[in-house]
Amino acid sequence: MFEQFSLVLSALYVVQGVLGLAEQRIYTTAQRASEPLLSRLHLVSSIAFTVCGIASASWVHWNGIPTTWYPTILACGMLVSILVQGRMYRAMGVSHSPVIDRVSALLQ
Fold it and tell me: Is the torsion defined by CA of 85, 91, 96, 100 positive or negative?
């Protein structure tokens, strides 16, 4: 059960990272220039979460979970991503992910 939960969290890491990378492409240069440090932190964390999610899923699939605390560690890592993204939204003056607007525009 811990292994399946860890795999799901690893998949969420990948999704979170890819969505963060997609957001970086949507933000304008002016938006990124208003908070350059936070913008770079968001980009680096998106890349790191994508890589960590893939590496974590691979590790769990081939070797099992290293400790029963592993799912908890993954969940705490997801909290970091959520906090960085929330801070980024507040700094850019947006209420939600711009990816949501793009997807809803495509669906209509």
Answer: negative
**Smallest Cα–Cα separation from 103: which of 19, 12, 42?**
19
Q: What is the pTM of this model?
A: 0.84
The label of the residue with tokens 């990124």 reads 32
Q: Fill in the DSSP letter of residue 64.
A: -
Q: What is the pLDDT of residues 38-77, one digit of tens each?
A: 888 889 999 999 999 999 999 999 998 888 888 888 889 8
Q: Is 27 helix (H, G, I), strand (E, B) or coil?
A: coil
Buried b (16+ CB within 10 A) or exposed e, 57-96: beebeeeebeeeebbeebeebbeebeebbeebbeebebee
